[in-house]
Design a protein that fits this description.
Length: about 500
């Protein structure tokens, strides 16, 4: 009677599989940086598991998406932790993929013979960003809705195909039920399928080629260019030499990978438990005062678009990503020098510094802008630049001497009503006409009129945009009940 191992081995060659996958010799002296790829794989596995459970509770329609997430958070055991892990896991994927790419870039590991694996890596980066973009919409809260509105608008600035692209992404001209269904299908069917296939190819190549060794193993006596006819033979010899002093894949390399993977999973769990995933009020397509915010890893790009003048926006929105992708895809083909050590590659050093530095600066700029904008306690949310201009006008015109907002200001004898919740009481259209000429509304009013020449129409509109954001405490959760009564239009005498 053969043992189960022997029985299986005779049929599927378990020993052969073990020899091919686990007993392989790897170059010695690999760093902890070499674990980033497998760490990404670990987080991917976490995303698959948590994602499947989330999908069991999720309902991809605008009427039910938000409530299904609320239900998961409030009623399902560990539901909010589960969602938290998936949320933080998404960020971790981006961080790890980028860190892994930086490691490969710094060690010159995209050079011969790993050009194809670098290309697959670039594809994987974009699949991961695609996951982030599509997943962001699924909770169907304010943040989700408005960020996707901006994101799809940016896609719409693409020359020639912009219009078609937006329609394709949104499933129509408006962001709505069709968009949500599309993003859900992309997020749980197409992207996972693509990621799975590309990861398999990526890993198959790593298994065939072995892990790239430390840079010095491939430097000594190397032909100058990887395109030199003698390079492949040199490479093979140098690589085999590095394996001579090497270690087996199992258990040496795998132990490190497991340690790093476990630390990251614990970290995700801790982040999920301490911070959760956050859920804003349900999406309100009519609330044009909401300030959209993309996920943090899209911030550098988002901030850049804010900085360029409007006329150049579409050129930058499409141009920069296109150039970056082209550079990344072409990198292993124009960089044919065999030098791998980062210290001896000044151009690569400058390129990485410029790219990394500008991303950090842009994220910083965006965050400091946010904290400046967040200092509006009366609205409880950051304001757009127009709303901030309106807020400044409100202060400059001394509206606060008569009116109170949230208990601050007012108190002059004119007993003006507080404006704390004016955004729930009146529409923007009403407020605009009232500010322009209150006398038309109440003949006896004590409210001064601010129409031209005191303020221009544009200034009145700016102030209106600010006033409509005033909704009092928990204003986001309350529905406005406008009591707009407009005066009879003045009778025009017929001639
Ligand atoms: C001299 C005191 C005074 C100043 C200054 C003043 N208001 Fe008024 N405001 C009033 C009074 C009194 C009313 C109520 C009169 C009425 O309803 O006809 C009023 C009504 C309003 C209303 C309608 C409120 C409601 O609940 O219907 C708005 C909006 C408003 N003011 C905004 C402003 C803004 C914005 C400014 C500054 C540009 C401003 N007010 C400056 C006295 C003032």
């Amino acid at each position: 009677m053969p043992t189960p191992f022997k029985w299986l081995d005779e049929r599927v060659d378990l020993v052969g599989v073990r020899r091919a996958l686990l007993d392989r010799k790897m170059p010695g002296g690999l760093t902890w940086w070499h674990t980033l790829g497998s760490a990404t794989l670990t987080v991917f596995a976490v995303q698959v598991v948590t994602g499947i459970i989330l999908a069991m509770y999720y309902s991809p329609s605008p009427d039910h998406a938000y409530d299904s997430i609320r239900y998961l958070q409030d009623q399902v055991v560990s539901g909010s932790v589960l969602r938290g892990i998936h949320h933080w896991g998404a960020s971790a994927m981006v961080v790890l993929v980028v860190a892994h790419m930086i490691r490969v870039f710094v060690m010159g590991a995209y050079k011969y013979p790993r050009e194809i694996n670098w290309l697959l890596g670039v594809v994987l980066l974009f699949i991961v960003l695609g996951f982030g973009f599509t997943g962001y919409l699924l909770p169907w809260d304010q943040k989700a809705y408005w960020a996707t509105q901006v994101g799809t608008n940016i896609a719409g600035t693409t020359p020639l195909i912009g219009g078609v692209l937006v329609k394709l992404l949104r499933g129509g001209s408006q962001l709505g039920a069709a968009t949500l269904a599309r993003f859900f299908a992309l997020h749980v069917l197409l992207l996972p399928f693509m990621l799975f296939i590309v990861v398999l190819m990526h890993l198959a190549i790593v298994v065939r080629q072995g892990i790239a060794p430390r840079t010095k193993a491939l430097e000594e006596d190397a032909p100058v260019h990887t395109s030199d006819a003698a390079y492949p033979a040199f490479y093979k010899k140098a690589y085999d030499r590095s394996k001579g002093a090497g270690v087996p894949f199992w258990p040496d390399i795998t132990t490190k990978d497991v340690v790093v993977g476990a630390v990251i999973v614990l970290l995700l769990l801790q982040l999920a438990r301490s911070f959760g995933a956050g859920l804003e009020p349900p999406a309100d397509p009519t609330d044009s005062t909401y300030v959209p915010r993309p996920e943090w890893y899209f911030l550098p790009f988002f901030q850049l678009l804010k900085l360029v003048p409007g006329s150049m926006e579409s050129a930058v929105a499409v141009g920069i990503p296109t150039v970056l992708v082209a550079l990344m895809l072409l990198l292993p083909f124009f960089d044919r020098k065999s030098t791998r050590s980062f210290r001896k590659r000044p151009v690569a050093r400058v390129a990485l510094m410029v790219l990394g530095g500008s991303c950090v600066l842009l994220i910083g700029a965006s965050m400091s802008e946010d904290s400046a904008a967040a200092v509006t306690p009366e609205t409880g949310r950051p304001l757009t630049s127009v709303q901030r201009a309106g807020r400044a006008l409100y202060a400059a015109q001394g509206c606060g001497s008569c009116h109170a907002i949230g208990g601050k200001g007012g108190g002059s004898k004119e007993d003006a009503p507080p404006l704390t919740e004016i955004g729930l009481k009146h529409s923007g259209a009403w407020i605009h006409s009232f500010l322009e000429n209150p006398l038309r509304f109440h003949a006896q009013t004590k409210m001064p009129s601010f129409g031209p020449p005191t303020l221009s129409h544009q200034e009145i509109e700016e102030m209106t945009r600010y006033l409509v954001t005033l909704r009092g405490p928990n204003g986001d959760l309350r529905k406005p009940e406008f009591v707009d009564t407009f005066p009879e239009p003045p009778k025009t005498k017929e001639k």
